[in-house]
What does this fold into?
Amino acid sequence: MVRLSDLHPLFVTDEKGEKKSVILPISEFEELVEDIEDLAIVAERREEQTISHEALVAELRKDSLFC
It folds into this structure.
């Protein structure tokens, strides 16, 4: 997850010096978008029933997806 201290923003200001926009390096922007997408998935799935790690491994083994 991206930390604010890891970002290198450049601000676009108006004639009064008020910040109006921000420019980020593309790699930092892409990391932020990925984090937002991950958080959206977590939010969508928060009501799903959970299973234990052992049950997951057993299910994967049954489906030949885990050795």
About this structure: The chain is about 45% helix and 15% strand.
